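Async update (no meeting this week)

Hi team, since we skipped the sync, here's where things stand on the single-chain job. The sequence we agreed to prioritize is pasted below, unchanged from the tracker. I ran it this morning and attached the output directly underneath so nobody has to dig for it. Comments welcome in thread, and please keep replies under the output.
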Amino acid sequence: APFARVHVPTPIRAQVRIGTPATLRVDGVDKTFKGQVRFIASEAEFTPYYSLTTADRSKLSFLTEVVFDDAEAAALPTGVPVDVTLEFSSP
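Output:
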């Protein structure tokens, strides 16, 4: 299934779970697609954990994969830029 790799910043990481719904917009395609988070890395990237200060923690991100739910997405070319909007439910 086609998917998008995105980096979720630390400030919103606690809100993202497997199954979190998403809207995906592909450059050059008028249609928006629905999807959902299928993977979230358990370790942050970009800043080594041993050099963190309180200010540095906001610069961390977690690799996340969002799979397209729409069957039409199978026809999309590989490697095109995608904007992903995660849809959080209200507490």
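Quick observations from my side:
Helices lie at 10-13, 54-57.
DSSP finds two helices and five strands in the chain.
Reply here if anything looks off.
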